[in-house]
Amino acid sequence: MQQFASAASLAALAVATAASAVHATTPSIINGGGAASQYFDYAAPDVKNQPVSEMFTFDTLQSNAQFGTYWATTSGTAQTALLQNDLTCLINKVENGGGCSNTPGGADTVHYAISETALSAGSIAEWSTSSWGQSAAGNLIQLPAMGTGLAIVVNDTNIATNGAATFSTNDLCEIFSGGYTDFSQITDSATAPAAGTITLVYRSDAAGNTFSLINHLAAVCTTGAGGNTAPGVTFTPTSSFSTLFSNIATQLPHGLGISGLATYANTLAGLESQGVLPQAIGYISPDWTSVDSATSTAKLLDGLPSPLIVAGLLNGRKSYIPDAAAIRLALNHIEKANLTTPPSTAAEGANPADWVPVIQTVSAGYPIVTYSIIDLPQCYADPQITAGMIAFLTDHYTSRTFKTIQHDNGLVSVTNTSAAKFLAPIKDDILANKNGWNTNIGNATACAGKAGR
User: Fold this and answer.
1) Is 369 helix (H, G, I), strand (E, B) or coil?
2) Gap between the Cα atoms of 108 and 262, Å rounded
3) What is the spatial distance between Cα 142 and Cα 165, in angstroms, rounded to a whole number?
4) pLDDT in tens, 222-277
5) What is the mean pLDDT of residues 30-40?
6) Residue 14 has pLDDT above 80, yes or no
7) How many angstroms separate the Cα of 95 from the Cα of each of 14, 17, 88, 270?
8) Surface-to-core class of residue 445, CB atoms within 10 Å of its CB (0-12 exposed, 13-18 middle, 19+ buried)
């Protein structure tokens, strides 16, 4: 029996579903979780007339390790759970909004995490000294998983279709810094929004979507005289929106902070009992909006496809919405990123910071794009899990079935982006030890004497 924590029920419970294959032996169970925006691609159970997810498909085909849980929370929670080897960080966040129970290991062992935020220097340093990190589980690994974007959602009486509102860089900087407080101030849009105070909806928890937005704005917004941000607000990359403001209550009085993706999506759509938001702007993963692929299984709390309308974003003279084609175009035209080439030495291969491009600007396509990330340890205690993780990652990057699942959820396979150059090193140095770097999963030398996960 598998358990998947549903992103559409973040307040509560796990949804159980049985794998369709009969396993000859009792499989080892792989536990983890991460960004709720990735749940439907990775872990949604089979839905009639809908594509199955990667992990569900993998479990029906394999005879050894299989995925037991995907607790859908946030990037920050998932990374904390992995660093501390404490699955309760994920479970408590989903079930009651709580924190870690500080019960690492055993039944609470964490085998992987999914995030939309690259590991920070502090997290990498924590792994190097933690009793659950390098000394117990070898290198900390992070890999680019899929290309995705960030949708700017607009709920305005004049905006009825995706892309009708066209926001410029200037609009985004003013809106999210609190400089623009009324829709009448937005003058760059092809369709003028109806006048009215903007309710700016933002994530109040540490979220990968927030990092994607702020990381982009940090590169394109200007402060001071002649700038396009509100006084006293400077965009620096962060996963927590409120940290941009010295006093968010007074600087952003029209803001509404929401924790949790499903609550956020439904509130923005005006479906929650908290009340309707007739004039609102927010940000969310494209798979929770109406640009989502018709084949996706993503649903809101009411079980229906999302009605959320997204703005088009101007890149040069052209406006783009965050569909797979525009995201793919952007990921092949990266203009500014903190990393563009894969590791070429053993030292670089052992450094998780050298494996994932963190993108700020692109010269074509949808302007706000990123790579979702797979985080995992190098060493596992159970050889079935070692083999299972290698097999799953191999399928993830090479299987046509898995690439189809990604596409059907509005995501872009790494193969179809400029990060395809990372695929050979992943195959040679993470899934195998072709170059003798000893950075591969389960490497006998690197994992000798280590307890593993």
Assistant:
1) strand
2) 25
3) 36
4) 998 889 999 999 999 999 999 999 999 999 999 999 987 777 777 776 655 444 57
5) 90
6) no
7) 9, 18, 10, 24
8) exposed
The pLDDT tens digits for 314-330 are: 999 999 999 999 999 99
Residue 151 in contact with residue 324, Cβ under 8 Å? no
DSSP output for 56-89: HHHHHH-SS-EEEEEEEE-HHHHHHHHHHT-THH
φ, ψ of residue 142 in degrees (nearest 5): -135, 135
Grade residue 206 by pLDDT with cuts at 50, 70 and 90. confident
- And the tokens for 263? 């609550």
CB 185 within 8 A of CB 178: no
Q: From CA 210, how far away is CA 49, in angstroms rounded?
A: 33
Contacts of 325 (CB under 8 A, 6+ apart): none
The rounded distance, in Å, linking the Cα atoms of 286 and 284 is: 6
Where residue 274 falls (left for φ over 0; alpha for ψ -120 to 50; beta otherwise) is alpha
CA pseudo-torsion sign 450, 92, 303, 286: negative
Contact present, 136 and 450 (Cβ < 8 Å): yes
- The domains of the chain, with CATH numbers, are 2-148+345-354+371-447 (3.40.190.10), 151-321 (3.40.190.10)
Between CA 317 and CA 190 the distance in angstroms is 12
Q: By C-alpha distance, which of 394, 359, 355 is closest to 373?
A: 355
| Alpha-carbon dihedral sign for residues 284, 286, 287, 290 | positive
Element at 315 (helix H, strand E): strand 312-315
pLDDT at residue number 16? 26
- Give the Cβ contact number of residue 149 at 10 Å: 31
258: tokens are 């929401």
Tell me the C-alpha to C-alpha distance, in Å, between residue 415 and each of 254, 338, 441.
Answer: 42, 20, 21
CA distances to 4, 18, 30, 41, 60 from 21, rounded to whole Å, are 17, 9, 17, 20, 5
Are 34 and 78 a contacting pair, CB within 8 Å? yes
Query: How far apart (Å, rounded) are the C-alpha atoms in residues 190 and 409?
Result: 29
List the alpha helices (DSSP H) in 296-340. Answer: 324-331
pLDDT grade for 302, boundaries at 50, 70 and 90: low
In whole angstroms, what separates CA 315 from the centre of its chain? 23
Per residue in 143-185, pLDDT (tens digit) is 999 999 999 999 999 999 999 999 999 999 999 999 999 999 9
Mean pLDDT, all residues of the chain? 88
User: Max CA-CA distance within the chain?
Assistant: 69
- Which whole number is the average pLDDT over 126-143? 97
